[in-house]
Every structure is written in structure tokens, then in C-alpha cells.
Design brief:
The complex is a heterodimer of chains A (about 400) and B (about 240). Chain A is mostly helical and about 400 residues long. Chain A is built from 20 helices and four strands. Chain A folds into two domains: about 270 residues, no CATH class; about 120 residues, abc type-2 transporter like fold (3-Layer(aba) Sandwich), CATH 3.40.1710. Chain B starts with a strand and ends in an 8-residue tail after the last helix. The chains are: A mainly alpha (about 400), B alpha/beta (about 240).
Chain lengths: ~400, ~240
């Protein structure tokens, strides 16, 4: 047997042992798999809840409006009713009712309304609202638009009666061309999906890396292990490789959960259209995540090597997913174009690419290759650092 | 065959080993005797390659523990001070893992494991996961995995520590059998009776130095005492930490 195959067989021995050992750690395995479902579940919930408040079908739904003193302004009431408003008597304590959220808005008219209106003064109408209540903003907006409409209609009539062109009080004619479709608005939330995938990459194999490093130290099994005729680099590689199938499984489960969530949950009922993710896109995202899995493993290995116990390692390594999170969360609100510089930042470039795959946008192959190559390179450098660290005496005996 | 020449090792302010020299031959049991903190474990750790000496050298079958650590690891079997097992693996799987790391495979490996299980009388625990093993059972598994490649040199750091009377007896018998098979056995202990009962050669260590060494007769002669216990005390200079 030549040196290379001997080395490979030792790496394989370490790999097989760590793989089997961790496969029997059912509790860690189950909790890791459950954590992969957090992203898909959270995203669907967010889309349903927020999507619902965005996409209430305004015109189809009658606006029920409690009005105080509807008898003082019959023409206004008539105008409102013609525009799909059902006028109701207001609850006795309108302000409390609004504050408690029992009604979204109350329109209050005063006895002076008729007098002021007749004299051509500004007649006061009062809206009782709670602007901190997100869900009632759409209703308030709608009522305000109706009142503005009535306002300008009456204003125009009065000017015309005095022989004045109405355009004199409208120096600007504002026309709004909104390119947002309901799809694009909900897709803002989909921008968070890449980050959830990255998080799973950083969490999926974590327990294996920790068990194989800090866990060995805690059990007192590291010292006898290192007496075996195995190079430190072989230990590091075997242990690192053992974490990869677990991380891959986690990413697979995660993507499957996203696919099921979008393709099976009847999102159409909540947001008016169905989200779908192409299966090929998911395969591509999976492949794109492989270099990052290696990177995450190496990074975890370095940190875990410094710690002395499972618990200590878990608390430090647990912070790792937050590093790619920072640009990732920004990305959810400020979409960045897939420029070259973004591809040079490991995990950041991939978040943009995952986003593109998810939307079935055309993805530049060069971008995929550059971002994968940079990530792989960084992973290899970190593996080298991990091997250097693993050789130190203080690492073995846990002193600092 | 183990040769140690002028070893020095310090940790920060602690001078753990200061100029230790000795030799341990094949077919002999050599005991490292000394109170806690005498430098026994550090000496053994240097010998089984997990730490490097600041000065001096240690040779195992002629291989240098620093420059030829892989060769040394191939010809030693060591039971270190900490001998943690993998609780989710069975006793046999724990042993097999070390065998694979030594490049053993297939029937040859399984045969070797069978021999050790026979020799250490561990049939009843061989296929149980090691979680919840007694300390005697743990030490047996730890020794079996350390010797799975049938090494010529056996290093044991306080092998009877924490064992009950029966386990201690069978451990001593096992050490005897190893030397009968021609192995070079070096073990450390802080229990004088154990060392005097087992060893062909004794190295008495104190404060990182060798205080006396040789066969029991040589030690008696050099310290001018009539019994070994007095000889140990005379060599070390105090009774502290030596007697059980």
C-alpha cells in the first residue's frame, strides 16, 4: 500500500467513525433537522400574515363605516354610500372603540357642518383613528381618498359656479404609474429565503464538528486518539468531511421544506396568487451551497478547536450564522445587483445567486463559478489553519 | 525498548521534568514510581508523542519521539492518563476504530480484537455501547484499543487508578502476561506495593527528577535500607504522597 492510499484509508477510518457515531446521536440529529424547518415555516407565516393585510381586495369588499352625526351631512353620506361605503351608527364611546381596535375608523360630523358647508367655509369632519394599528391603515387610507374625492368634487363645483377654471387650484396633475404587482410585493419577503438557506448551511453540520473536536476533549478521548499513527491533517480532514453529509442533509431537508411550503400551502387564498419554486432551481441552489458547507465546517472547526467543552463550543459556534446574516438581512430590503464585487464575498454572492435561482431569473455562469471558487479557496485556507491549530499542545490539553 | 536521555519539560512556571534519564528493556516490567506531581505523566506523554520535550531525547525502538513520531506511534501502545471512550460505540467498535487507524482491516483486525477480548475477559461487554461502563470495564476497553496493533512497547499511566481489588488483580496479571510475551512494559504508579510486586526495574521519580533507579536489590543497596518501603522514603526524602 503506498503512502497516499494508506493516508486515504486513515482519513476514511476517521470519517466512518465520526459519521456512524453522530448518526447514533439521535437527539442532535432530530434537533438539527427541526431547525432546518424554521426558515420555511417562518417565511410562509410572514407571507400569509403580511400578504393578507396588503392584498385585501379593497373594491370588492364593502367598507363599513361607523358615523357620528350622519344626519348633519346627508349629501356627504350619500356620496360615501354611492362609493361602496355602508354607513353604520357609531358605537357609544367611539374613541375607546377605536383604541381597542373594535372598529378601525369612526367618522364624526358636527351639527355645525351644514351651516359651514352652506356658507362656503371649510366644514370640519373628524376621523377617529389609531395610526399605530398597521392593519387599519388600508381602511383609513381608503376613507381619506373618498373624502379627498368629495372635497375636490365640491371644490370644483364651487369654482365652476364662480366661472373659474378648476385647474387653477391644481398646478400639478399627478399621475402615478405603479409597477409593483402583488407578486413583486410579496417577493420582497422571499428575499429572506437565501439567508435561511445559509443559516442551515452553518447549523446543519455544527453538532458533528463540535462533537469531533470539543466533544473529544470533554470526554477525555482526544489524548489517546492522538497517540495513533495518524497525521493531524488526516484527523482534521476526516472529522471535517464527516460533518458534510449532515450539513448536506440539512440543506436538502430545508430546500424540500421550502418547495413543499410554496407549492403545496394554498398561498393563493391569502395573497391572491400562487408562489412556485422550480425543482431545477432547488437543485442548483443545493449545488451552489456545497462550497459554503465546506467553508462553514472549516470555520466551525477552528472555533471549536479553541474551546474545551461541548457547551462552550456550542455558544461560540452558534454565533457563526449571524455573520452572513448581516448582509443577508440588508439584502432583504435593499436588493443588490449581482455585480462582480458581491461575488467575491463568500456567502454574500451566493445569497444574491440563490435569490436569482429562486426567481428563475437568468443567472450568469461566470458569477456562479467566481463565487464558488472564492468560497472554496477561503475554505481551503481555513482548513489549513485548522490543521495548524490542531497540532498545538495547548489545544490537546485545553490550556491557554 | 525505551531509552530516555536528559529530558526537560516546563509548563509556564512549572518545571515538570528536569533531566530525566532511564532505560526500559524488552521482556521487562519497568515501573515509574513517585508521588503525584513527580513528573511521571509528563515523561510518559513525551514518550507517547503528544508533547515535545524542551531538551533531551526519548527513543522507542531507536525512533526519536519528536522527529519520528509516526514510527514511534506504530511501535507503542499507550494508556494515557485520560482514557475516554466513545459512549455511542460498542466496546468492539471502539477497539476496531483504533485498529483501522493503525491500518489494520478485515479478518486480521477482527482476529486481533478477539484475542484481546479473550485476554482481558470482556466477552460479556464486547457488543454493548460503552455508555455506563464501570471504570474497570472502561480501562479494559481503553487497554484493548491501545494494544490492538500488538505493539512491542506498552506504556501505562496509572493503569490501576480507580479500579476495585478484583480489577486491579487482573490488571496486574495482564501486565505480567505482556512481559512474558517479550514486551517492554513501562507503567507509572504512586502505589509502592504495586510497583514492588510487579517490576523488574524501578525508577523512583521526585520533583521532576530520577531519585533512584535499578532493580529492587540495587535500590536497597544504594539507599542502604533493608526494606523497600524505607528505601523509597529515603530516595524521595519524604513520605508525602507515596503511601496508599
Amino acid at each position: 500500500m503506498n503512502a497516499f492510499t494508506a493516508s486515504m484509508s486513515r482519513i476514511t477510518a476517521v470519517f466512518v467513525k465520526e459519521f456512524v457515531d453522530n448518526l447514533r446521536d439521535r437527539r442532535s440529529l432530530v434537533s438539527s433537522m427541526i431547525s432546518t424547518l424554521i426558515g420555511p415555516v417562518l417565511l410562509v407565516l410572514m407571507i400569509v400574515i403580511i400578504g393578507r393585510s396588503f392584498f385585501k381586495d379593497m373594491d370588492a369588499e364593502a367598507l363599513e363605516l361607523p358615523v357620528i352625526g350622519s344626519e348633519y351631512a346627508p349629501t356627504l353620506i350619500q356620496f360615501l354610500e354611492q362609493n361602496g361605503v355602508t354607513v353604520k351608527p357609531a358605537p357609544s364611546d367611539a374613541e375607546t372603540a377605536v383604541r381597542n381596535g373594535d372598529v378601525e375608523v369612526v367618522l364624526e360630523l358636527t351639527p355645525e357642518f351644514g351651516e359651514e358647508f352652506k356658507n362656503g367655509q371649510s366644514a370640519t369632519v373628524r376621523l377617529i383613528i389609531d395610526s399605530s394599528r398597521q392593519s387599519s391603515l388600508a381602511t383609513i387610507e381608503r376613507l381619506r381618498n373618498l373624502l379627498e374625492g368629495y372635497n375636490s368634487m365640491i371644490g370644483a363645483l364651487r369654482l365652476t359656479a364662480r366661472g373659474i377654471d378648476t385647474s387653477i387650484i391644481n398646478p400639478l396633475a399627478i399621475e402615478q404609474v405603479d409597477m409593483a404587482t402583488p407578486e413583486t410585493q410579496v417577493l420582497i419577503f422571499l428575499n429572506m429565503m437565501p439567508y435561511f438557506v445559509i443559516m442551515v448551511i452553518f447549523v446543519g453540520g455544527m453538532h458533528v464538528v463540535i462533537d469531533a473536536t470539543a466533544g473529544e476533549k470533554e470526554r477525555g478521548s482526544l489524548e489517546p486518539l492522538l497517540i495513533n499513527p495518524v497525521k493531524r491533517s488526516e484527523f482534521v480532514l476526516g472529522k471535517l468531511l464527516a460533518s458534510i453529509p449532515y450539513a448536506m442533509l440539512a440543506v436538502f431537508v430545508n430546500l424540500l421544506a421550502f418547495a413543499l411550503a410554496f407549492n403545496l400551502v394554498p398561498l393563493e387564498d391569502f395573497i391572491g396568487f400562487q408562489l412556485t419554486i422550480n425543482v431545477f432551481s432547488l437543485v442548483k441552489i443545493f449545488l451552489l451551497s456545497l462550497p459554503m458547507i465546506l467553508l462553514a465546517g472549516a470555520l466551525q472547526m477552528i472555533i471549536a478547536t479553541f474551546t474545551r467543552s461541548f457547551k462552550e463550543a456550542q455558544s461560540y459556534v452558534g454565533f457563526l450564522p449571524l455573520i452572513p446574516a448581516l448582509p443577508g438581512i440588508g439584502l432583504a430590503f435593499l436588493p443588490v445587483k449581482p455585480d462582480l464585487w458581491t461575488m467575491l464575498i463568500p456567502t454574500f454572492g451566493q445569497q444574491i445567486l440563490i435569490n436569482q435561482f429562486m426567481r428563475s431569473e437568468p443567472v450568469s455562469l461566470a458569477n456562479v463559478l467566481i463565487s464558488s471558487a472564492v468560497t472554496l479557496l477561503l475554505a481551503l485556507i481555513l482548513i489549513w489553519v485548522a490543521i495548524r491549530l490542531f497540532m498545538q499542545e495547548r489545544i490537546i490539553f485545553g490550556s491557554r | 525498548m525505551i531509552q530516555v536521555q536528559g529530558l526537560y519539560k516546563s509548563f509556564k512556571n512549572v518545571k515538570a521534568v528536569q533531566g530525566v534519564s532511564f532505560q526500559a528493556s524488552n521482556s521487562q516490567i519497568t515501573g515509574l514510581l513517585g508521588p503525584n506531581g513527580a513528573g511521571k505523566t509528563t515523561t510518559l506523554r513525551i514518550l507517547y508523542t503528544v508533547i515535545q520535550p524542551d531538551a533531551g531525547s526519548a527513543l522507542v525502538d531507536g525512533y526519536d519521539t519528536v522527529k519520528q513520531s509516526i514510527e514511534v506511534q506504530r511501535c507503542i501502545g499507550a494508556l494515557p492518563d485520560s482514557h475516554g471512550l466513545y459512549p455511542r460505540l460498542t466496546a468492539r467498535e471502539n477497539i476496531r476504530y483504533y485498529g483501522r487507524l493503525h491500518g489494520l482491516t478485515g479478518e486480521k483486525l477482527e482476529k486481533q480484537i478477539d484475542d484481546l477480548i479473550q485476554m482481558l475477559e470482556m466477552h460479556d461487554i464486547e457488543n454493548r455501547r460503552t455508555e455506563g461502563f464501570s471504570s474497570g470495564e472502561r480501562v479494559k476497553v481503553a487497554i484493548a484499543r491501545a494494544l490492538v496493533h500488538d505493539p512491542q512497547n506498552v506504556l501505562l499511566d496509572e493503569p490501576t487508578n480507580g479500579l476495585d481489588v478484583m480489577s486491579t488483580r487482573s490488571m496486574r496479571a495482564f501486565i505480567h502476561r505482556l512481559s512474558e510475551r517479550g514486551k517492554c512494559v513501562l507503567f507509572s504508579s504512586h502505589i509502592m506495593q504495586e510497583v514492588s510486586a510487579l517490576c523488574d526495574n524501578i525508577i523512583i521519580m521526585s520533583r521532576g527528577e530520577v531519585a533512584a533507579s535499578g532493580t529492587p536489590q540495587q535500590i536497597l543497596a544504594s539507599t542502604r535500607q533493608t526494606n523497600l518501603e524505607d528505601a523509597f522514603v529515603a530516595a524521595i526524602g519524604s513520605e508525602e504522597g507515596l503511601l496508599k
